[in-house]
C-alpha cells in the first residue's frame, strides 16, 4: 500500500518517548549542580532528544533549510550594522526596535521583521511587541572574537564553490534547482493553506474581470507554482488567468505547468507589472515595500 507522504511528514512517530525523556531531564537538572561540564552536556543532549521527539519531519526540515539559514543571515546583519554592539552597550533592559533602528540607521520595519525571527527562535527575548531583551549569546555577538566569525561577503558557500554567484544562480548551475523546488513544495506540507481562511469568493471572485485572459491572481515569489496549482484545483472555475512570478533561474526550469497559469520573470524590487484590486502578504514582504512595488 502506498504511504501517504503528507501524513508521514506531519506525524509524530516518537511522541511516546516524551514521558521518559522528561523524567531524565528532571533528574538531569537536579544533578546539574554536582555534575559539572559532563552534567550540562547530558542535559543539553536530552533537550535535543526531546525536541526531536515532539517535532514532525516537516518541522525539522524547515528548521534546517529555512529557519536556521535565516537566523544566520540576521546574525550577520547584526554584526555588519553594529546592532549587537549597540544592544550590548544599552545593557540588560528591553530595547524598542524603533530606537535601535535609529541607532544603526536602518528601516525600522525591516529591523522589526529580522528581530522577530530571532525572538521566535530564542536568540532574543521578546518583552512585548517590537521590544527585545538581549540574551547572553547576543551580548557575546558584540565581541569581535565571536561576531568576527560571521562575514556576509565571504561565506562558506562562496569559498566551497569558488564563486561570487548568488545562491539561486549557483544551485541552477550545479543542477540542484530541482531539489530546491522540492524543498519549496515540502515547506507547504502540513501548513494551513491560505485559501482555507482568506475570503476568496468575497474578495477575489466577486467583481472580478470576467475576461478569460484578464489577470485574476498573481503569486509573487511562487517558485514553480505549488500554491497556484493547489488554488486551481480548489477553485477551477475562477475567471481569467493565474500569474506566477519568480527569478529567472526558477522560472526557466518550470515544466508541465497548468495552461491557466502564466509564468513570468520578476525581481520583486521593481514596480509590479500587473496591477489589481488588493494584496495579501502571506510571507516575506514588508508592508512599506509593498506600497512601492504594487
TrEMBL record:
SUPFAM superfamilies: Winged helix' DNA-binding domain
Key word Methyltransferase present: yes
Alphabetized UniProt keyword annotations: Methyltransferase, Transferase
GO molecular function: methyltransferase activity
GO biological process: methylation
Name of this protein: Catechol o-methyltransferase
Source organism: Fusarium langsethiae
Amino acid at each position: 500500500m502506498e504511504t501517504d507522504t503528507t501524513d508521514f511528514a506531519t506525524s509524530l512517530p516518537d511522541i511516546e518517548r516524551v514521558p521518559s525523556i522528561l523524567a531524565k531531564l528532571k533528574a538531569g537538572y537536579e544533578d546539574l549542580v554536582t555534575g559539572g561540564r559532563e552534567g550540562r552536556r547530558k542535559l543539553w543532549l536530552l533537550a535535543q532528544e526531546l525536541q526531536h521527539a515532539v517535532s514532525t519531519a516537516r518541522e525539522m526540515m524547515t528548521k534546517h533549510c529555512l529557519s536556521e539559514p535565516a537566523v544566520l543571515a540576521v546574525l550577520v546583519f547584526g554584526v555588519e550594522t553594529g546592532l549587537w554592539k549597540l544592544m550590548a552597550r544599552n545593557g540588560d533592559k528591553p530595547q524598542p526596535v524603533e530606537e535601535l533602528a535609529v541607532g544603526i540607521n536602518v528601516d525600522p520595519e525591516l529591523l522589526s521583521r529580522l528581530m522577530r525571527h530571532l525572538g521566535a527562535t530564542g536568540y532574543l527575548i521578546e518583552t512585548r511587541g517590537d521590544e527585545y531583551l538581549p540574551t547572553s549569546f547576543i551580548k557575546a555577538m558584540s565581541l569581535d572574537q565571536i561576531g568576527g566569525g560571521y562575514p556576509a561577503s565571504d561565506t562558506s558557500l562562496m569559498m566551497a564553490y569558488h564563486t561570487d554567484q548568488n545562491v539561486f544562480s549557483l544551485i541552477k548551475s550545479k543542477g540542484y534547482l530541482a531539489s530546491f523546488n522540492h524543498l519549496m513544495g515540502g515547506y507547504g506540507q502540513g501548513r494551513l493553506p491560505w485559501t482555507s481562511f482568506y475570503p476568496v469568493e468575497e474578495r477575489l471572485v466577486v467583481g472580478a474581470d470576467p475576461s478569460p485572459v484578464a489577470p485574476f491572481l498573481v503569486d509573487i515569489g511562487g517558485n514553480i507554482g505549488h500554491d497556484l496549482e493547489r488554488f486551481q484545483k480548489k477553485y477551477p472555475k475562477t475567471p481569467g488567468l493565474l500569474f506566477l512570478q519568480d527569478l529567472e533561474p526558477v522560472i526557466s526550469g518550470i515544466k508541465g505547468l497548468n495552461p491557466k497559469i502564466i509564468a513570468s520573470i520578476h525581481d520583486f524590487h521593481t514596480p509590479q507589472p500587473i496591477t489589481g484590486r488588493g494584496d495579501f502578504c502571506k510571507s516575506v514582504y514588508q508592508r512599506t515595500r509593498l506600497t512601492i512595488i504594487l
